[in-house]
Amino acid sequence: MTEAIRLRSAVVAFLESLAVRYGRRPRTIQTYRTALQRFLEYLASVDLDPDQRTTADLDPGIVRDFITYLEGCYREEGRALPAATRQTYLAALIGWVNFLLDEGLWELPAEEARRLVRELRAQRGRPSPPLPRLPQEETLEALLQAARSRPPSRSRRKELIRLRDLALLLVLRSSGIRVGELVALRRGDFDATQGILWVRHGKGGKERLAFLDAAAVRALQAYLQARDAGARGKSVDHRPLFARHDKGAGDQTRPMTPEGVRRALITLAREAGLEGTLTPHQFRHYFATRILEATGDLAAVQDLLGHASPTTTRRYARVSPKRLRAVHRQAFGESER
């Protein structure tokens, strides 16, 4: 059974194992410590506080994008990431990932784990793709079509899963909230009239509003009405907004976990006939880039995402080619002279 631990503790455990289990030399251990400390700083920059979040919150996509983040840091300093540094940092990261998987500290499907390690190894000899990895519109539509195509079921449990997963996709798409924030939501945090979510457990304990489009509001209302029909009293507001409906949950209304959200997306991707899937974090990338391309307002994106620093938000300015093209045309137009 997977045992999730805090991300910083997972790094410490790995470093301690290098000498005891693998007999690595002190110099190698120190090098890996430096590399993984930089990785922990990267996790904090993408809203995964290593002292608060656990390995259950870790997305393969986030791990995969570390080297691209590092390249960007070096580029801002006016220099390139040295090949030796790339090799060393990837060796440390691959070793840590394998340690988590071997020790049962990170629950990841076997095929996804193999693909992640394979892709990390492939980064040793070439520059990484731009950060962040953006989902294709067609992939999003395929997932939504799969969710909408599920037929109603006479089984209450299966019917609630059907309604929940559609609402889950639409909320992730239109709100931009973190998966940890999503699973912490309660029914009282949802205002259907205004189409908003009160995010009361954001990074750093900060509260903010998240906005939903009409499709997400309708889907969420349908799910909650089917799930809690006839329920009355203030206690209803304290129930999870998104609940488990697997057999293990029984008759209790237990909140989904980040891993449960990922499994739901994997199942939908399989039903849609997709080779890969979208992680919850990629929905956040999609949301940020769509807002930026529509408005060009980085400050608004920062507030909507709940970023404490504008530096984190500026990543999206580098992956919005439509916005960059619009800026270029504004300056140069279509002139060929």
Strand order of the largest sheet: 1-2-3
* CATH topology call of the largest domain: hpI Integrase, Chain A
Q: Mean of the pLDDT scores? A: 82
Assess the beta-strand content as a share of residues. Answer: under 5%
Could you say how many structural domains there are in total? Answer: 3
Stretches with pLDDT under 50, minimum 5 residues: 127-132
Indicate the overall shape: globular
Order of helices and strands: HHHHHHHHHEEEHHHHHH
Q: Rg from C-alpha positions?
A: 21 Å
- By DSSP (H or I, 4+ residues per run), the number of helices equals 15
* Number of extended strands: 3
**Broad CATH class of the largest domain:** Mainly Alpha
Please give the share of residues in helix: 55-70%
CATH architecture classification of the largest domain: Orthogonal Bundle
- CATH evolutionary superfamily of the largest domain: Intergrase catalytic core
Spatial separation of the terminal alpha carbons: 66 Å
Q: In this structure, how is the largest beta sheet organized?
A: 3 strands, antiparallel
Name some characteristics of this structure:
3-stranded antiparallel β-sheet; DNA polymerase, domain 1; mainly alpha; 3 domains; 3% strand; hpI Integrase, Chain A; 337 residues
Write the layout of secondary structure elements.
Elements: H1 7-20, H2 26-45, H3 60-64, H4 66-76, H5 83-102, H6 110-122, H7 137-149, H8 156-175, H9 179-184, E1 190-191, E2 196-199, E3 208-211, H10 214-227, H11 258-271, H12 280-295, H13 298-305, H14 310-313, H15 321-332
Antiparallel strand pairs: 1-2, 2-3
